[in-house]
Amino acid sequence: MSGKIFFLAMIVLLSFGSALSGNIRAVCSTADLAYFARVIGGDKLDIETIATPVSDLHYVEIRPSFILKLKKADIAFKVGLELDMWMDKLIDGSQNGRLKVVDCSKYIEPLEVPTFKADARYGDLHRFGNPHYWLTPANVEPITRAVIEALTELDPANESYYLNNRRVFLSELENGLDSLKPSVGEITGKEVIFYHNSWPYFASFGGIVSAGFIEPFPGIPPSPSHLAKLTQLIKSRKIKAIAMEPYFDRRIPDKLAADTGAKVIVLYPSIGGRRDGESYLEWLKGNVDALAEALK
Amino acid sequence: MRLCSLGLFLVFAISPAAGQTTLNPDISLVGDLRMFSHNDDTRADESERFNLVDPQMELVIGGYLNPYVRADATIAWEGQHAAEIEELYMTGLRGMPLGLNIRAGKYRLEFGKLNPVHPHAYSFIFQPLPHRLFFGEHGLNDMAVRINRIFPIGHIYTELSGAVLKGEAIRADEHEHEHENAGESEASPGIMARFAGAGALSEDGELAIGISGLTTEYDRVEDLRASVIGIDLKYKWKPTRYRSFQFEAEGLLSRRATPEEETVESLGGYAYFDYRFRQRFNVGAILEFAQEPGDNEHDSRRWSIFFGYAPIEETSLLRLVAGQTKPTEGESFWEATIQAVFSLGPHLPHNF
Questions:
Q1: Cβ-count burial of A267 within 10 angstroms (0-12 exposed, 13-18 middle, 19+ buried)?
Q2: Which residues in chain A have their CB less than 8 angstroms from residue B152's CB?
Q3: Using a CB-CB distance cutoff of 8 angstroms, which residues of chain B are in contact with residue A56?
């Protein structure tokens, strides 16, 4: 009998153990949103992340272990703009009626919103605009505004704690951006070939000119004729850098580089992709420096 | 039963009374085109030549009725046959009592991991033999009311489901008993239950196991009962978007009472692996085995290899399946099938 009671107690403890800390349990679809939630929520939040910093956010598997994270959560943060649509399926599967879902694109002014009938002839085009909005510091304020709004609604007692964390973070970011200006100056006005159209926000921050894409349309692999045109373009404009995300196959960029003399560099679209525990500023500096080095 | 019906009516009909959405549901069309060749003498008019199959298609419509409930329908056309309702159901996703997930309607029940999957989403082409012999050509697809709840145990995902079903899917393959009142349903409502668990074995790999069972009086005129128990396992490893490995297996035991007042136990099972490489290619093999339900003296076996290629991305796919079948009666034969599948409509991520 005592064995049965012990067994039941263990199940209850395992099931609800994480709830005993009294913290808000948050699940973030991406490492970037987890970063923003962490800097604002501090030690009041227990954070789980679905996609890793080097995941392709367009293709995340619906796994039971992810559903489980959302089942136990109080709040879920997603990118929105139809990037992490898999998050909706995970949320639906979690059977968590008390889960607060926060779309962090809420206060973003998206770039590249189609002004035409966006259908599959244009590839995997996002109907509501380019969703890679966290890649410019200009959008950190609206992202964290959405985060703090949700946190204070859920936990009004700690509103001043969250507000202070955000104020400190935004202030440090602003100061850090000043120190980044010389590096940014080295990439401003330079042309770059990107693999996928993930970088318009980053390009707007750095003043980079996107000369073309390896994918002829978002999500569509290149044909030989498209690569021939790109080769011609790179040679004629003397473009020095081909930038790709860490999850793409290097073979095509490497072949283009071999044919043209351009350099292939990996830009990380998520915080923590280059190094565990890096800050937003360190992540941004890493990408700017990598690009500046390639463009020399 | 009346109380249950009233409860469901309240859940599904009264709660959305606040108003209708102005947005259209998601609509997708899945086309399935095939050609095949075989040397099966029992289909002599097709044997040893290339044959084109009449096109098949599914119209898939789904969307939220309100913040709590969604509705889904799949209408299927096969060749020259009239359209049929393959699935039509409502699912209460949130706001349900005790955090339950409630589904009502006709759909591919969650008996095992593979049965709910539409065949066009298989890595191979054909429905596994035990599903076909034990449940019929559309799998276990029946009118049902199902409740489901997730029970997290630490880092282990577990879920328990229970359903009351019409019982027609079990009756469908029972073609030996015809009664004077043919045309009327001979089956009594059945019950189904499933317990499943899953967990991450690594950052890239996940293992899921489950046990399912159902029982129904498949012939209420002669008071004959049929039961099926299944155990399933699935492992998927996906380290990058370009590469994945999947292994899935299911074993089934059918117990069926016969008019001769004996209970016949029949076994069935399948196992396959599927290796995806360079994102757009996959290759694998499947082994299948099933004894006839109610007649375990006869069995059917098949082995096949399959190859898939997505020319652009996931909206279109070419598959080649080749293998050998030993049918329940007759000689073994070879068969090769080429399938082209396309999906026109919203892209939806697939479940594990």
A1: buried
A2: 15, 68, 71-72
A3: 241
SS3 call for A64: helix
Compute the CA torsion angle A113, A220, B243, B203 (nearest 10 deg): -10
How is A121-149 classified by DSSP, letter by letter?
GGSS--TT----GGGSGGGHHHHHHHHHH
Cβ–Cβ gap A60/B151 under 8 Å = no
Q: What ipTM goes with this model?
A: 0.85
Token pair 């399946």 in the structure block, residue? B321
Helices (H) and strands (E) in chain B, counts: 3, 17
B/e letters for B42-81, b = 16+ CB within 10 Å, e = fewer, are eeeeeeeeeeeeeebbbbbbbebbeebbbbbbbebbbeee
Q: How far is CA A186 from CA A206, A207, A271, in A?
A: 9, 10, 22
Mutate to test the interface with A, among B72, B100, B153 (most CBs of A within 10 A): B153
Residue A73 tokens read as 């959560």
Give how far B93 is from chain A: nearest CA, Å: 6
Q: Is B199 within 8 Å of B207 (Cβ atoms)?
A: yes
pTM as predicted: 0.87
Residue A63 contacts B, CB cutoff 8 Å: yes
Give yes or no for a contact between A147 and A29, defined as CB atoms under 8 angstroms apart: no
Q: In the 3-class helix/strand/coil scheme, how is B225-289 assigned residue by residue?
A: EEEEEEEEEEEEEEEECCEEEEEEEEEEEEEEECCCCCEEEEEEEEEEEEEEECCCEEEEEEEEE
Q: Do A60 and B351 count as a contact with CB atoms less than 8 A apart? A: no
pLDDT in tens, chain A (296 residues): 455 555 555 444 444 444 556 899 999 999 999 999 999 999 999 999 999 999 999 889 899 999 999 999 999 999 999 999 999 999 999 999 899 999 999 999 999 999 998 888 888 889 899 999 999 999 999 999 999 999 999 999 999 999 999 999 999 999 999 999 999 999 999 999 999 999 999 999 999 999 999 999 999 999 999 999 999 999 999 999 999 999 999 999 999 999 999 999 999 999 999 999 999 999 999 999 999 999 98
Question: Which candidate, A86, A131, A78, places its Cα nearest to that of A103?
Answer: A78
Chain B interface test: which of A92, A95, A126, A217 (most B C-beta within 10 Å): A95
Which residues 225-284 on chain A approach chain B with CB closer than 8 angstroms?
247, 249
Cβ(A285)–Cβ(A262) under 8 Å? no
Find the chain B residues whose C-beta atoms sit closer than 8 A to any C-beta of A. Answer: 70, 93-96, 99-101, 148-157, 198-200, 203, 206, 208, 236, 238, 240-242, 278-280, 312-313, 315, 347-352
Closest CA to B328 of B179, B148, B173, B129: B129
What backbone phi and psi angles, to 5 degrees, belong to B203? -65, -30
